[in-house]
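Issue 218. Parser rejects a valid record. Input:
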Amino acid sequence: MRDLARSDHPLPAKGADAVGLVNVTKRFPGVVAVDDVSLTVRAGEVHVLLGENGAGKSTIVGMLAGLQEPDNGHLTVGGGRVRLTSPSGSLEAGISTVFQHGMLVPTLTVFENLVLGDTWWHRPPRALVERRIAELQRDFGLDVPLDALTGELSLGQQQQIEIARALLRDSTVLILDEATSMLTPAGADELGARMRLLAGRGLAVIFITHKLSEAYRFGDRISVLKQGQFAGEIPPEELRGQTEVDAVEHMVRLMFGTGSAAPASRRATRAPGPVRLAVDALRTEGGAEVLALRDISLEVREGEVLGVAGIDGNGQKQLAEALAGQRPITQGSVLLDGTDLGRASVAERRRRGLRYLTDDRLSEGSVGAFPVSENTVLKEIGAPPFWTAGFERPGRIAAHARDLISTYAVRTPGEATPIGHLSGGNIQKVLLGRELTGDARVVVFNKPTYGLDMQNITASRKRMREIAEDGRAVLLISTDLDELIELADRIAVIVEGRIRGTLDNDGSGEMRLRIGRLMVGDLEAAS
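Output the parser choked on:
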């Protein structure tokens, strides 16, 4: 543990380059996550990084934290070119990251967490840590009870411990990744004030958030990413000259703008039929890390695609699970063709025609070590024709799997191949075929193209079009606005567990802006 008085990373002068990206590109299979991005973070500023899901924020954080390396371009620290090949290398360069989901060990005391990773060949310097913590409590108002068990502290206190750990390491750059997502409004304001203090002392603070009001209130400079590219910046002098309303409108236009989906690319729609799925005033319980759903009401008609848009983590997963019967509802109703499914089991909902494709293909949707054949009937265990009098019929299961492989063009050596050996796109084909087996009336998709390459994205979207054209009702939950604009007849926006509004999709370039305004709380955008 280094003493601040002997810091290896003296704080640079306010306004000096602290850390940056120079023409950085990062690719993953099937996607360019960051595309030729250049930006500079300056000492003494709170630099807000904005962008919708998939914009590249997490990838940039990963590179600065030493978890990934750029494929092209380079990173800088203090204006000089660096290569960050590991988290320890990032820390040595003076960069500390506080991730959205804390990295503290809950069974250790606060003191033990603070010295975790320190040199192992001598005892932790308790007296030095106590002195330094007293300074941090005085200068920044941090609440750091050294002997408390970390897991028994509030989320806000745990976050303060992570900030204290960064300051004890003499960091010059502090990255706060979605740091307010689990905090109360008062806790978020406290963190905002603390960021101002840190920046005032000369640190460079990178603050990633989805809440535009926080970006305006806490930030000095705002950079916006869109689809992996740098979309624009609001510098301090311009930001301070704007009202919050004007600044939020500026941010929305940079984030959402006009999309790539043109009216000609949209699904050809027909007049929808009767209501298949009706949800009224649905509520679920929440918790410390689980968002509660509040008064969700929506309808999906035969032959219709209803899209659900929203920043990830606003209740989409909970909504999908509540409809599928995997999460209990505390209030409201779910009607399938007029029949209340409120107390029906997952299996009963499936038999009645409500099908669900999870966003977690490998961990939740399938058993990776099981063959493709077994995965095609996972939701039919014990039921005919694949089981008779409690006995499995391997021949029928294998034949069924071969038919599904052929129908959905699954690329696999055979039905006996473990499904975990297949690509994400081929796993998705197996799961889709499984859900469409039998009398499927309503199909709920949760981020169906997430993590797929472009070829499989195109194939998946084509399948969803065909499902609606066949007369089924589709509820499409997605964080990809272009996907929703391409496929959906109507788009509902979910924010903090509530439906904020539902828009008729006209496919115009303004749809992205209207959806974006609803995401940030502008209810007039629905008119």
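Fixed in the parser; the record now loads. The longest strand covers residues 17-28.
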